[in-house]
Specification:
single chain; alpha/beta; Arc Repressor Mutant, subunit A; D-Maltodextrin-Binding Protein, domain 2; 3 domains; six-stranded mixed sheet; five-stranded mixed sheet; 12 helices; about 45% helix
Length: about 325
């Protein structure tokens, strides 16, 4: 019976499903229409339609729902898309691995991360990586830990983000592995135009009426500040601006009399450049993991593995004690 099934697979499906048909089908779904997919692939609409029709004939099910508004996958198409994307991804990694064996300085790494990582944590990793692999290519997209669909869809190789399993109520899919690179911490920062810049001792009550730049309520940074002021019986400080932008915060405290909170890793990078410093203010000691997230059961190309090793090497030099914790 097993032999019969194997034979059926080879004759009915295995020898008839072509990779370029799978690629064309995936492009139709991604583009939303056959006409747009044809333009993207540089072929005619009839060629795309024939590729999809061949797949449907081979599998014996309808893969696309076509309408005047475009094309969308059926439930059968969703299954083929998910499995086909994984097959194409493994093939791509195989080609990259062969190329890497021929020239171990080349390859592509696709990274997703939020701005606080791309502005401070990623640059030293990229510098080390390019010193070792000068011909490699690094593609960086904006991705947060709460929005991992690009990783789950295999559009990127890994994510570097703040947080981890069990941190701040974050929901992380079971399909990913999470490894903590290092523990960061939140600090209160100011620039040379602040009258508190050279103070050796500062109480929270002293700066409650200063002009603060904070994140939106509910964000981890804001929660730590709120906890600190509440612990001293104080209301939240005056907020002049709410923003997640690291660049906005560093620029404004460098040129104005604002006070803000920053990850220590960010301040470490920008302190000398913009004459910034951490104020001697006590905040609650809370671990703030910077994690690297990859997809379970997915082969990583050699160049991606080299990038991860560079990330781990850089993490070992961060101010906070590096970790080697992995959660699944």
């Amino acid at each position: 019976m097993l032999m019969a099934k194997a034979s059926s697979w080879e004759t009915r499906i295995g020898r008839r499903i072509r990779l370029h048909d799978l690629h064309a089908f995936a492009t139709v779904i991604q583009s939303g229409s056959i006409s747009k997919a044809a333009v993207k692939l540089g072929v005619t609409q009839s060629a795309i339609s024939q590729m999809v029709a061949d797949l449907e004939a081979t599998l014996g099910v309808r893969l696309l729902d076509r309408s005047a508004r475009g094309a969308a996958s059926t439930v059968f198409g969703e299954v083929l898309l998910r499995r086909g994307r994984a097959a194409l991804d493994e093939l791509r990694h195989g080609v990259e691995e062969i190329s890497f064996l021929c020239d171990q300085t080349t390859g592509q790494v696709r990274v997703g991360c939020p701005e606080s990582i791309s502005s401070a944590v990623l640059p030293p990793i990229a510098n080390l990586f390019f010193r070792q692999h000068p011909s490699a290519v690094l593609d960086v997209d904006h991705v947060n830990l709460g929005q991992l669909s690009p990783l789950l869809d295999r559009k990127i190789d890994l994510v570097i983000a703040r947080g981890g399993r069990g941190f701040g109520g974050q929901e992380i899919p079971d399909e990913v592995d999470v490894r903590t690179l290092f523990e960061d911490e939140l600090v209160v920062a100011a620039g040379p135009n602040s009258r508190w810049f050279n103070r050796r001792k500062i109480e929270l009550a002293d700066i409650v009426h200063e002009r603060w730049i904070l994140t939106e309520p509910g964000i981890w940074n804001h929660l730590v500040v709120a906890e600190a002021f509440a612990a001293h019986g104080l209301e939240m400080p005056n907020v002049s601006m709410r923003t997640l932008s690291v660049h906005m915060r560093t620029q404004l405290i460098a040129t104005g009399d604002f006070i803000t909170t920053l990850p220590r890793s960010v301040l470490r990078l920008y302190a000398e450049r913009f004459s910034l410093k951490a104020l001697p203010v006590d905040l609650p000691a809370r671990p703030w993991p910077v994690s690297i997230i990859t997809l379970k059961h997915r082969s990583l190309s050699p160049i991606v593995q080299r990038f991860i090793r560079c990330a781990e090497d850089v993490a070992n030099g961060m101010d906070a004690r590096p970790r080697s914790r992995k959660s699944s």
